[in-house]
Design a protein that fits this description.
The complex is a heterodimer of chains A (271) and B (425). Chain A has helices at residues 4-28, 31-61, 72-89, 97-116, 135-159, 171-203, 212-232, 239-262. Chain A is mainly alpha-helical. Chain A has two domains: 1-122, Up-down Bundle (Four Helix Bundle (Hemerythrin (Met), subunit A)); 131-271. The model of chain A has no long low-confidence stretch (mean pLDDT 91). Chain B folds into four domains: 2-98; 109-152 and 387-420, TATA-Binding Protein (2-Layer Sandwich); 177-268 and 356-373, Tick-borne Encephalitis virus Glycoprotein, domain 1, CATH 2.60.98; 270-352, no CATH class. Chain B has helices spanning 13-18, 21-40, 47-53, 56-64, 74-99, 109-114, 126-133, 158-179, 366-385, 410-421; strands spanning 118-121, 138-141, 146-151, 181-187, 192-198, 206-221, 227-237, 243-250, 255-257, 260-277, 280-284, 289-290, 297-303, 312-319, 322-329, 337-340, 343-362, 389-395, 400-406. Mean pLDDT of chain B is 87; it is low at 1-8. The longest helix of chain B is centred in the N-terminal third of the chain and has 26 residues, at 74-99. The relative contact order of chain B is 0.15. Classes of the chains: A mainly alpha (271), B alpha+beta (425). Chains A and B meet through helix 6 and helix 7 of A and helix 2, strand 7, strand 10, strand 17 and helix 9 of B.
Amino acid sequence: MITDHTLLGLATIMYLGLVFFHILYFVWQKEKLLSAVQHILYAAAAVQAAGILMRWAISYRLGIGHAPLSNYYESLIFFSWSISVFMICMRKRRLYPAITFVAAGISLMLMAYASLSPGVERGIQPLIPALQSNWLHIHVITCFLGYAAFAVSFICGVLYFFRPGGIVPTRENLEDINYRSIIIGFSMLTSGILTGAVWAHFAWGSCWSWDPKETWSLITWIIYALVLHLRFTGGLKGKRIAILSVVGFASVIMTYFGVNFFLAGLHSYAT
Amino acid sequence: MSAIKSDKMRGGPIFRFLVSVRLTIITLSLIAGASIVGSLVRQGASEEEYLSLYSERAYHFIRLFGLDDAYHSSWFYLLMGVFAINLFLCTLQRLRRLMAPRERQAPDLSGFVSAGSGFATDPVNREEVVRRLGPSYRRERVSETTELFEKGRFSRYGAIVVHASVLLILAGGLIGNISGFKAYLALKPGDEASAAMPRKPGQSAVVLGFTVKCTDFRVSFYPSGQPKEYASDIEILDEKRNILKRGRIRVNEPFSYKGVYFYQSSYGRSNVYTFKADGRTFELGEEQVARGVRVPFMVVRYEQDVHNFGPGVMVAYMDADEPKTLWFLSNVEKMRSHTVNGSKVSLENISGQFHTGLEVSRDPGVPVVLCGFTLMLAGLYINFFTAHRRIYLALGPDTLIVAGTTSRNKEGFAEDMRKIGGGLA
C-alpha cells in the first residue's frame, strides 16, 4: 500500500537523483542535462507535496486529523520542501545550477535525516491541546518559508567565496539573489514571529515569554535587520555581507535545531 | 534611520550620536548578545538550582549582573531605552527629511538613458508612451518641456512605518509591564477564589475585585495517555453572590471579564487518601497529618504504579525520635494494612481529583502591541515590495527622452522601460 512514507521515500531518492544529475551537468555541461535537472526538481517537489498531503489525509483516517506541521519529523520535511518551492518560484534566469545543486543537497540531507535518524519520531501523533489552533498553520508555514529563504541566502554567501566563472555565478548576481532572499526571509520570519506572538497570547496568556525559541528567533531577526541596515545605510557590500549571511544562517540553525537540543523551553514538542 | 553624511546635521555631538545608525547597530548587537547570554544561563531558578548547575563564583557573578533574570534586569531595560530613543529620533529625522519640499528639477536624463533605464524617441510617440505607462502613474508638469510620471510615493514611508511599529510594540510591552499583572489560580471543581497567586515568589497576591468559581473541570486523553482536551467551566460572582458572567475556558480559548483574561494553562491531580487507624477513619490530602492516633502519620509520596502492583503511597511516621516510612499498596491485600507501633493502620481508598491551572492576566498593552504587529507587516510590505518610480518625459526640439529611476528593483524597472520603448526607437 502506498503511504506517506512511500511517497516521501521516493522524494528522497529523487533528491539524490537531482544531486547526481547536477554533477553530471557540471561534468558535461550539456543543456539537456540542465533541463533534466529542472524537471527532476519539479517532480521531486510534487512527489514530496503529495507525500505531505497523504500524511494529512492519513491523520484524518486515524481520527487525529491535523496538518502535518506539528512535530520535528514533519517540520524537517516541510523545511526541505520549502527550499524546493523557493527554488521553483525563483525567476528562471536567477536559477543557477550551482545554487540549485547546494539547495538540492540541503533538501536531501534534511529528508535523509528525517527518515533515517533513530532520534526522530516518524509516526503521526495526536495534537496536544496547545497546538490545536489555526495559528499553527500560518505560524509554521511563514517560519519555514523564512528559513528556506535564509538557506538560499546562505548558499549565495558561501558561493561568494568561490572564484566566479564556470559554474559559479558572478558576484553581482550572487549579491542580488542574496539580497532578494534576505528580504523575503526577513519578511517571512517577521510574520512567523508575529503570528507566533499572537498565538502565544491566546494559548499561554503572554505574547512574549523569553522562551529560548522566541529569544533565538529574535536574535536571528536582529542579525538580519543589521544586515539590511548595514547594506542600505552603511553601504556594506561584497565579502562582509556574504560573511553576515553565513552568520545569520548559523543563527537560523540554532533557532531551529540548537534550541531543541541544548535549551529546554515551551517549544519542546518540536524535538 | 539613514544618516546621510552630506545632510546638514543639527544639534551637538551627543545628539548626533543619539540619532546615528552606528548607535542603532551597537544597541541592537548588545541586545542580541544579551539575549544569547540570557538563553544560555538558566533564568529565574532558585539559589539551590544555580549552585547545583554552576560554581559558587559563577553564581555570584550571575547575581551581580542580574543574569538570573536577564530580560528584566535594569541594564537590559536601559539598553531597550537607549534603542527606543535612538529609533524614535531617527524616525523623526527621516520623516522631517521626507516632508521637506523637494526639488522639482528633472535630473540628468541622458545619464539614465545610458544606464539603460530610459530611451529617446520621436516626439510623435508621446501619446503612445503615455498610453503604455497606463493610468497608475500620477502626472505632474515639472517645467515647460518636462513632465513627471510618478508612482508609489508612499513606498518611501515604508521604513518609517516599520520603525514606528517597533516603537509601538515596545510601548505596548511597557504599558503591560507597568499597569498589568500576571498571576495564577489552581482550582478544584467547587473551589472559588477572589485573589490570584503571583507568578514570582515574594510578590503579593492579586486581588481581582470579584470572585471566580470553578464549577467544573474535565480532561480527556488520547489512548497514548497524552492529554487531548481540557476545559474549565467558571462563574464570575460579585460579593452578593450574583452570577455576573459564566463561561468555558479551553486551551487557546481564553475567557475575559473586565479586562482580566483567564487562560487554560495546565491541570493537575490531587489525591485524597482514606485510612483507618485505631478504628477511626481519616481523609488525608497531600502532606496532611493524621492526628489523634497513637502514632501520627502522613502521606509523603504517591506512585501511580509501584513495581507493577498498582497504586501505592509512602507513609511517614515517627518511631520514638526516628522518622520511618512504610509503603501501602491499595491493590495488594497483604500490603493494604500494616501494624505501626502496635496500632493497625489500613489504606481504604485512594480517590483522585483534577484541578484546573489557570493563568490570570491583565495586559492593557496588548491592543497597542497588536496594532504594532499589523503596522509592522504593512510597513515591511510597503518597504520591500513596492517601489517609488519616477519617469520623466522631456520634450526636446526633435527628440522625446523617456527616462527615470526607481527606489527598488532596478532590474524590473529597466525591463519595463524596454517594454514601454519597444518598437518606438
